[in-house]
Amino acid sequence: MKLADILKESCVVADIKGKTKKEILLELVEPLKKANLIDNAASVVKIIMEREKLGSTGIGDGVAIPHGKMKNIDTILCAVGRSKEGVDFDAVDRQMVHIFFLVLAPEDSASLHLKVLSRISKILRDPSFRKTILKLTNAHEIYANVIEADDKLS
Fold it and tell me: Of residues 67, 98, 113, 140, which has the active-site annotation?
């Protein structure tokens, strides 16, 4: 599964304003709600916050991949966000997080869910990709760069 299959351009937030985990998650979930991909933003945030209690999804190098599983969706959903200032997201390296990939998966999709997380991790390992994302000016450019980087994996 390619990211183009699960990420809509309308679900890219180019300038996250939130300063707490909950605020950031709400900003990332809101475009999914506006696109009618989820019913209740607050319940999605609650699921992801529960997952965060198991360990931060701030994986280091300015990146976080908050994720969770839901009963009432039938496909994997994704949203991407960027915080220009950076946010304390309890990352493993204690650095500020600038790039967020939110992933929601159906409860029974373990292998597909892991494949998507793996694809995202692979593109985010590239320091030049991360630097480029931070320099881009709008959601369209961020979306195009994410899709291009993912296409290079195949």
Answer: 67
